[in-house]
Structure formats: C-alpha cells, structure tokens
User: Which sequence fits this backbone?
C-alpha cells in the first residue's frame, strides 16, 4: 500500500474494518464486503495514477460513489481496491447560455439539484436516494427515477464526461456539445457501464427550466388494467411529469412506519401517483374533469390532490419512502420492465408464479409504471435464514425472468446488473451482444481490472 500512500497520502488510504464495511457495500445485503483497502483520491490526476499502478500490478478496482445501488455493482467482496470518489465534489463552469454545469463525480445528486435551483433552473433526474447518491454513480448506472416519463434517464442529461480507462488514460468525451456526429459516441458506452470500462471522474450536466407549480394527485384503483386506463386518459390531455404506482401492502407499511396518513380512507389494491404542472387554473380544472371521468368508468375508486407544497411532499413520501421502509425485511429486489401496454398482464403473471411457489412471502409492488418499469420486492420472513432466502429468491428470479424474456423485457430496467443479476443477463441480451460487450471491455480495460465480475465474467 506504500505506493498508494505516495499518491493520495496516508490519511486517504483506509484499511480498518469499519471503513472496509462502509465503502465495500452498496444497498444490497447479500454479500460480505472484503476490500483490501479504500482509496480516496482528491483529483483526476490521482485517479489516473492509482489506475496506472493497479494496472501494472493487475489489482482489481471497484469504483465507489454514494453506494446506493441495488444490484451489488459497487460491492468489493474479493480483496479489490475501492476507489471512493467522495472528494471529487466540486461544481464549476456554469454556462447559462447552454444551461450546462461541470460536476465532479462525487457531487451529490441533491447538491446538483440545489445548484440548479439557485440558477432558477432545474435538474430533473430524481429518486429517493438523491440526498446520498453521487453523479458519477448515477452515470455509471444510468439512474432513472421518478421523472423518466417526461425527462428521461441520466444519459439524457450528460452533455459530456471524463473517463479514466483501465489503462489510466483520460478520455474527454463529447465536451458538452449538443450536436456531434464525428464518429462513435463513446460517452454513451460509458453511461450505464457500471464502472467496468473505467472510472467516471467528471461530467458536464445539462439543466432545464424550472417547472411551474407542480400538483400531485393520488388515485386508488381496483387493478393494474384500470391504472393503465388512467394513464392513457390523463396522457391524452395533460403532460405528466410523473406517473408512479404502488400496492396496498406498500402503502400499509409506509403508513405504519413513517408516521404518514393514508391519502384517503378507501382501501384499494393499487394506487397511482400523478404529477403535473399547473401554470394556470385551467390545468387543475382539466385534471379534475379527467379524474371524474375515470371515476365514472370504474377505473378509480377514490383520490386526493395536493393543496399545498407540504401536502404534495407528503403524498410523494407515500411512494418515495417505500424502499427505506421495507429495508429491515432485507427485500430481494427485481427491477424489471416491459412495454408499457404489456405491464398489467406482465405483472399478473409474475405475481401468480411467486404466489404459487412461495405463498408465505410478502410481495411489495411499486414502480415507474409510466415508463414500463416495475419493482418486485420479496420480503424475507423473520424466521428464514438469509442464505436460504437468497436461494429461494434465486428460484423465483429464474421464473420471473423467463416471463420477462417472453415479454421482450429487461431484467434490469434502471438498477444495473452488478453481481445480483449477472447470471440472468442472457434473458435480456443475446449471446452475440454479450460477447460484443466483453470485446468492448477489453478495449477500454485490457487488464480486466475495472470492477471485474460485474455484469458478466470475462
């Protein structure tokens, strides 16, 4: 470790058990962290020096951001070096004309959101972990979240990025250009690559205008087909910035553990949360007219709309607090997607196969149904050992991913593949595609040191 101390300083090379535990895990809890050391570089040059030294000695590196991932993409379980990017946390070079800003990889998502707000602009990529996730990690996993239906994924907001490859070379990709058709866009390869091609150290992020007076509407529905009718009805006349859903069990647990009131007394199997701008009174009038139409059709049983910013925030918490609420149950998460129109049948088949084989498992459903992405969360029974639970959930995943494959969907809509879904990649990608991915990795990372074992094995 002496050579790494020379690069970053003794205080920035951590080997104690507490640090290895903290930096060696993400939000998955199925792997034991075992990094050889945690390194905290303070500059891009230090990152390059670390990678060059690691490549020379063939030492594996796991890039680490906020470690909020859910697929074990940031887990260091085999003696790897953890490269934590927390110190690369500066925001600079704001360009008001192009509406871009330069961010170090360690910038917290919420930090960027607040900076945009100070400029009377908006960074729309948002999710429950915005207060701790980092921009570099968001880019590495192509994070989605709650606004995808209108604003897209993280990749849609990356105007340029700097990547340190597995040889220590620094690539400056796209440089903030809006139009650039000069050959392959290597920036897009790095986005979503989960650190397997290199370390994202800096990014030029795009911003947009601030939305005007957002309103939140929560509706109760009898089934998923009804929710899809609601989506189609509202989208026909209103531009939605979010359309989320969650099950009654999800609502019960959030209300019980987060000290939040139910949105209304009527108990429904599923709930939809809609968000839209209301620049004038007509927007709310239109929303209420559509709500009444859905009630008349039997697609909605009850509903409530926010009357203040505080109420809107509490309604959002009914959806956003689900992941945190169910964490004590060590949930086994499947982050799956299909075409939006296929979601009801897709979800019904998945739920049926899980209930048939494991009727004692509690299933919490929620997700971004407006973009075809649903989250299946299987909660661990208290008396079931974690290893046995993981084995049983592995069986569930095989059945679920067979359904995903039949529906032409994805085994990972937004959380990445990491370690957790690696063995199931073939359900979404052909053998030819996977072999091409391996070839691309070898170009960027010829020694195979960058986050090895994630997504696929070489």
Assistant:
């Amino acid at each position: 470790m002496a050579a790494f101390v020379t690069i970053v300083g003794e205080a920035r090379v951590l080997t104690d058990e507490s640090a290895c535990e903290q930096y060696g895990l993400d939000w998955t809890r199925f792997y034991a962290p075992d990094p050889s050391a945690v390194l905290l570089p303070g500059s891009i040059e230090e990152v390059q020096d670390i990678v060059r030294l690691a490549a020379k000695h063939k030492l594996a590196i796991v890039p680490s951001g906020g470690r909020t991932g859910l697929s074990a993409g940031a887990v260091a379980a085999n003696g790897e070096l953890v490269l934590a990017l927390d110190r690369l946390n500066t925001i600079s070079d704001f360009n008001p004309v192009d509406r871009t800003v330069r961010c170090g990889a360690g910038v917290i998502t919420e930090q960027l959101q607040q900076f945009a707000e100070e400029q009377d602009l908006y960074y729309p990529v948002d999710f429950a972990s915005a207060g701790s996730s980092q921009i570099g990690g968001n880019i590495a996993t192509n994070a989605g979240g709650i606004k995808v239906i209108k604003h897209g994924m993280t990749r849609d907001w990356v105007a340029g990025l700097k990547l340190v490859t597995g040889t220590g070379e620094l690539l400056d990709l796209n440089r903030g250009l809006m139009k650039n058709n000069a050959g392959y866009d290597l920036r897009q390869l790095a986005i979503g690559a989960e650190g397997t091609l290199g370390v994202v150290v800096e990014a030029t992020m795009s911003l947009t205008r601030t939305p005007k007076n957002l309103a939140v509407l929560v509706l109760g529905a009898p089934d998923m087909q009804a929710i899809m009718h609601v989506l189609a009805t509202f989208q026909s006349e209103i531009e939605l910035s979010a359309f989320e859903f969650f099950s009654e069990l999800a609502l019960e647990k959030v209300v019980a553990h987060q000290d939040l009131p139910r949105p209304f007394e009527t108990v429904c199997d599923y709930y939809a949360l809609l968000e839209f701008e209301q620049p004038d009174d007509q927007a709310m009038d239109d929303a209420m007219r559509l709500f009444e139409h859905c009630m008349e059709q039997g697609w909605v049983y009850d509903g409530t709309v926010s009357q203040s910013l505080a109420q809107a925030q509490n309604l959002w918490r009914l959806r956003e607090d689900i992941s945190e609420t169910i964490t004590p149950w060590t949930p086994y998460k499947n982050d799956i997607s299909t075409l939006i129109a296929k979601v009801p049948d897709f979800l019904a088949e998945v739920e049926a196969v899980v209930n048939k084989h494991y009727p004692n498992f509690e299933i919490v459903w929620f997700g971004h149904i407006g973009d075809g992405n649903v989250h299946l969360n299987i909660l661990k029974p208290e008396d079931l050992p974690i290893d046995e639970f993981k084995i049983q959930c592995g069986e569930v995943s095989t059945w679920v991913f067979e359904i995903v494959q039949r529906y032409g969907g994805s085994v990972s809509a937004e959380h990445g593949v990491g370690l957790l879904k690696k063995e199931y990649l073939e359900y979404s990608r052909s053998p030819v595609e996977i072999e091409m991915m391996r070839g691309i990795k070898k170009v960027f990372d010829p020694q195979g040191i960058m986050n090895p074992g994630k997504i696929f094995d070489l």
